[in-house]
Amino acid sequence: MFAAVRIIGRLALPLVMGVVLAISAGTAQAGDAAARHIIGFSPDGAYFAFEQYGALDAGASDSGWSQIDIIDTRTDQFVGGKPILVVDETEEAILTLEQARAQAAAQAAPILAQYAITSPAEQSASDKFTFPGEMVAYNDISRLEQVSQKWLSPLHGETGISTIQLDEILAASTSDCSASFDVTRQGGEKPLQGEKAGKALGFRLTLQGQDGKPFKILHEDKTVPGSRNCPTSYSLSESYELTPAGKPAVIVVLVQRFSQGFEGRDRRFLAVTGQPR
User: Fold this and answer.
1) How many angstroms separate the CA atoms of 30 and 117, rounded?
2) 3-state class of 145 per DSSP?
3) Which of 40, 112, 117, 212 counts the highest number of beta carbons within 10 A?
4) How far apart are CA 113 and CA 116, in angstroms?
5) Where are the alpha helices (DSSP H) in 209-271?
6) Which residues lie below 8 Å from residue 138, measured CB to CB, with a gap of 6+?
7) Three-state SS for 137?
8) Strand ranges inside the chain, DSSP E
């Protein structure tokens, strides 16, 4: 349904946010990560879209890039089977951030129009320390990885969720992720137990009710795709809800995925979608 614009090269697409002490987006430099922009829902809640964008962590190249995820919330799968991605990963890249975002937006426009993805997404919870809408220098990412939370408490909404809990787990992987297990765990956490051969770090999302008891597993990794680049940790950024008239409520949870990039830590966002009940 859509195609990615790509020049073959290394897959290090860091996504970083702004910290109070960080530099501004206008003075971003190689190794910086990116911000995210929420596009919204379709009126019936069946589709959700957001963009993540930044500059490549690629040494000689600081080419801009943009990725737009359009997700069917009923299946938690990408529309068309994959996100829209505009990136030039060669060392001679001259693609600016503005050009990458404009090209991705042009590719996404007919799909967003087809599904009428224009309804605002109401944020129900967020970790104020992740600053997902701003860009920061790459050397601040490790600090953010350490302070980011693994639970969120929605303050409002009609879903009856008191807590969104993230737990890191080991899951099957076709990539050799052994080196990622040698990295210091987030916040000094204890190493995960179990056989690590053929495994990568995955995660489970659990929804808890007002009584504090879990009532639904929203997501649990059985396998970790190579595109996650052997994660070193996951944490929660924010959640969004929509309750369409006469239809079940829909929830979207943005998960931060940290991994080791070319010049330092990278951060990307993963959207987990579904019906909470």
Assistant:
1) 33
2) helix
3) 117
4) 5
5) none
6) 14, 16, 31, 32, 33, 57, 261, 263, 264, 265
7) coil
8) 5-7, 35-41, 47-55, 64-72, 77-78, 84-88, 122-126, 151-152, 163-172, 199-208, 214-220, 231-242, 250-260, 265-274
Choose the most confident range, by mean pLDDT, from 19-28, 81-90, 217-226: 217-226
DSSP 191-219: PPPS--TTEEEEEEEEEE-TTS-EEEEEE
Cα separation, 51 vs 65, in Å, equals 11
> What pLDDT score does 158 carry?
67
Q: Could you tell me the pTM of the whole model?
A: 0.84
Domain that holds residue 56: 5-274
User: pLDDT band at 156, cuts 50/70/90?
Assistant: low
Average pLDDT, the chain: 82
Provide the token pair at 220.
């649990």
Number of domains in the chain: 1
Pairing relationship of beta strands 84-88 and 5-7 according to DSSP bridges: parallel
Nearest CA to 142 out of 29, 260, 58 is that of: 260
Instruction: State the maximum Cα–Cα separation within the chain, in Å, rounded to a whole number.
Output: 56
267 token code pair: 């951060």
Tokens at residue 45, please? 């809640």
